[in-house]
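Chain A, query sequence.
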Amino acid sequence: MSVTVKGLDSLINKVNNIGKNGQMAAKESVEKMAAAVERQARINANTGSHPKGSYSMTATPLIPFGPNSAQVGRAKTSKKGFGSRGSGHIPGTGPGPNMVTGTLNRSIIYTSNPVGLVGYMAVVGPTAIYGRAVELGNPRWKSGVKYPYLRPAYEELMASGELQAIHQAVVNKYILGRG
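Chain A, predicted structure.
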């Protein structure tokens, strides 16, 4: 009596390729997921703006001014009160950090490095020195405000299933040969 297994050669080839493809899959999966977190963090870190040099931390509202209240114009930024450098952001007056020069946004990057034989690790974060203070808050800020942009980016992508979908697509491509 003999037993013939059809497709055994194909299975052996796939098993042999798992190790070779595993490293490529790990690298691509981690880098694509890190790029998605980076992209979402940049969106989260750009929820407002004001003109460079105005120091206003929220959009300047249109307000009545002048001898009669029918005239409407932009509020002036005070160098002594709210809106002056060092006065702090007033909680509840804006949705998040304002983009003035775009430094924080441009500084959000990812790096990836091999870990072990076939693993990869990515780190996503800002290179701007104040990026951590925006995310976690700064005890020197009078208002105590903080604007998390990085952790919510990761949590949103995990909750939506986008990171899992990225990983599954890469596994399908390299390990299962379906992509």
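The first strand starts at residue 48 and ends at 49. Confidence is low (pLDDT under 50) at residues 56-93.
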